[in-house]
Amino acid sequence: MSQVRVHNFSVSLDGFATGIGQSLHEPFGHAGGRLHEWFFATRTFRAMHGEAGGTTGIDDALAGMWAPGIGAEIMGRGKFGPQRGPWSGQAGRAEWNGWWGAEPPFHTPVFVLTHHPRPSIEMAGGTTFHFIDAGPVESLALARKAAGHSDIRLGGGPSTVRRFLAADLVDHLHITVVPIVLGRGERLWDGLEGLEQRFAVESVSSPSGVTHQIFTRR
Amino acid sequence: MSQVRVHNFSVSLDGFATGIGQSLHEPFGHAGGRLHEWFFATRTFRAMHGEAGGTTGIDDALAGMWAPGIGAEIMGRGKFGPQRGPWSGQAGRAEWNGWWGAEPPFHTPVFVLTHHPRPSIEMAGGTTFHFIDAGPVESLALARKAAGHSDIRLGGGPSTVRRFLAADLVDHLHITVVPIVLGRGERLWDGLEGLEQRFAVESVSSPSGVTHQIFTRR
């Protein structure tokens, strides 16, 4: 069976994976880019954006596991955009096609979980956004069908990862703990007491200051 | 000036430093011993209890920084015991002298923060418990006077460490992140947004599975 994988999922010391006040200009709200500086600095991230250079140590090694073997992604609507509610009726909503420009880095089908379905959007480079009103089990069945024998990436945000973890549908979870105290936002760990009993956990600190934690389902 | 140091302060992935339901039998409530297994296994901890053996790697190296150079400890009442309110009027209260037996491992004056002062208790081995109704600044002045030129250990629990951090009175903070999700309890990080701006942070993961984070005040 194909695996369900979470990669490069950054959390603060106090467990927040995103801040408050998400907007078009601040996808992670008041957290800004602080949770992902380690990722932006990697060769993997820079190459995704057509840039040369970048770090090539442990941060990059883990960052680079993001793409290989993935056949589809599932993401929450908050990762796709800052809008809530219906897609029509407000300026710019119907045209919104994500934060990632004309050629998103996914290159696979992407299933966006929303209570407000809309027609699929086919982007350049192989990414197609599908909008489905479905829970973890149903969306995973759709993603698996689209992915063939490849794995499914669970792209976030925190409430989506939490729901899949609560349903015990995650096989590989790569968390990056960033040494900042965000204070406010959305927590990853709420409602997951005893999660460690279902996973083997490895931790490795990076000279960049972050600590990677890799959860492998037992 | 002498330093204020926190050592071996364990927190769960979700930031809890103690569970709920503290009792005579469970100082850390439903967390049990899970937050401190790494510490119990060290040569340092075993030697404190007159036992031989124990781990001698990075966990022990950091655990062993606990004692040298310390001239006094400050602790919250919850670290001293599970009782709340007045010391008299209930069986066993007036006799309570801590969890640590006749010869506690502190070997210095220990200032217990409580709204219910009581006479000091002199134990074997150089530990004397003083009970004071005082905030961070005042208790630190008393501890410094007792410690001479030596450092002050801030012993916990989480609300006590949090108060001293909020007052910017901590110089050295050694946190150990244990890969468990406690779900409930008392959080260390609440109300400390932006703390990292005041500290340099180093992280090192141990083969035991925990990650040590050392905060040094800038």
TrEMBL record, chains A, B:
Domain of life assignment: Bacteria
UniProt xrefs under Pfam families: RibD_C
GO molecular function: 5-amino-6-(5-phosphoribosylamino)uracil reductase activity
Protein name per the record: Dihydrofolate reductase
Bacterial bifunctional deaminase-reductase C-terminal domain sequence ranges: 136-194
GO-annotated biological processes: riboflavin biosynthetic process
Protein species of origin: Mycobacterium terramassiliense
SUPFAM superfamilies: Dihydrofolate reductase-like (SSF53597)
